[in-house]
Amino acid sequence: MSLSRRALIASLSATTLSLTAVGCSSKDGSDSKGGSGGSGAAGKAGGAGGTRKIRFGYIADFNGSSLLAIADDQDLWKKAGLSPSISVFTNGPIQIQALGAGDLDFGYIGPGAMWLPASGKAKVIAVDTLTDADRVIARPGITSIEQLAGRKVGVPEGTSGEMILNLALKKAGMTEKDIKKVPMDPSTLVAAFSSGQIDGAGFFYPLVETIKKRVPKLVELAADTDFPDHSFPTAFVSGPKTDPALTAKVVGVLAQANDWRAANKDRAISLAAKMLQVTDAQAGSDAANVQLLTTADLVAKTKDGTVDGWLNGLAEFFVGTGQLAKAPAPSTYYDGAAFVAAAQAAGKATTR
Question: Does domain 3-130+233-350 bear CATH number 3.30.390.10?
Answer without folding.
Answer: no
